[in-house]
Amino acid sequence: MPTEGTARPTRGRRFLFVVLTLAGLALLTEIAARLVVGMTRVARPRPNALDAYEVLDASDPRLWRLRPGFSQTMDELIRSKEREGKRLAVRHYTAAMKRLDIPGDRTVLRVNQDGFRGPELADPPRGMRLLILGDSCTFGTIEEYTYPRVLDRELPAVEVVNGGVEGYAPQQLLWRIDEYRRLGPDVTLIYIGWNALFAERLADAPEDSRAIPRDEAAPRLQAPRLLRRAVRALWPRQTALEAYEKTKRPARDDPQLARLESWEPSFMGQLRAIVDGLAASGSEVLLLTLPGLYASDEEPSRHALEIGHLPVFTDNPYVLARMAERYNAALRELAREHGLRLIDLETWSRRELRPRDRFFIDSVHLVEEGQALLGLYLAEQLRPYLATRSRRGGTDRVGAGGAAPGRSLMRNRE
Fold first, then answer.
1. Angle between helices 317-338 and 268-280 (to 10 degrees)
2. Would strands 64-66 and 54-56 be described as parallel, antiparallel, or unpaired?
3. Domain boundaries, the chain
4. What confidence tens digit (pLDDT) does each residue in 230-277 have?
5. pTM for the structure as a whole
6. At residue 97, does pLDDT exceed 50?
7. Which of 26, 96, 153, 361 lies at a CB distance of 3.0 to 4.6 Å from 365, suitable for a disulfide?
8. What is the CATH number that goes with domain 54-70+111-413?
């Protein structure tokens, strides 16, 4: 109660005091939220457990990479997947071992001393150096069937570096861009996007979402973001096995499909930064579109519904198909904007991978025979292009006579 002679605060001053107090609390909350988000972002490793051939990056705890000098035989690979509880991988490798007649003591996974899958890198590079950046689709399954190794055999005057790492999205490539530049690739192929598509927050997107890439957007408030993260944490995460086994319901009248007609993935800004960073170092960049199990204009077979997997925000295969098609359209536009070459694997897969469900392990990964076919197709597309480029210390003849080793892989298909 005010004493005699003391002026009572006016209503305006009391209102201002309340506003300033709330603003101060909001500012403190935002500062605390940014500290929490920053710490969790830096400390966050790969979303799922690391495999035996992977390690956390000692200099950057956000990253994981391949374990230098690591190798595994077929038997060792299957046993390690069993220990890690990765039942789907065990199922696939066991079936592939039998189907392709691969002995258990054959080495099927090698990581060189530079931390890339495949043989040791030459110093200096032997001829032209071709770097392939990607995720598990590029990392591949059994060594001799991975499309980078098929390319290596098909183009003997070219050194092919497999830069695929399981779980990678454009963000991880961007974090490692300086390392890729130091490799000095003459040409870089970029085949990536599935992990980023599965991680999109499609349900949170606006109705007409040509979304601003997250890295290019204005600074966002972190307190609401942290609250949403806490709320989501109350629900158990979907495991990989649950994603594969959940019931899929193809529906062409799904409202999400209409929203996707003008949608653009939020990570395109990261991809543009990768392209610019590599081009600035003198590497010519080629983009690859994504081939997938599902297509928005094709009814999926019963087998395709059994083997496919979907993002957590949908049970409709057409939604994933349309997202991939919109991403591929964005890749084509990016290629036009930057004057880049693009190899359209989506169109190729529609023509060559028939029936589609025969060539996929799941929604995004090709079986070994499909990986080898992809390598042969890329070699066919790249051979005349690479022949026009000068190489370090080499001639202009690239890849002549390299077809037989790759094509021998296809005998087990018949």
1. 30
2. antiparallel
3. 54-70+111-413
4. 544 444 455 556 666 789 999 999 999 999 999 999 999 999 999 999
5. 0.80
6. yes
7. 361
8. 3.40.50.1110
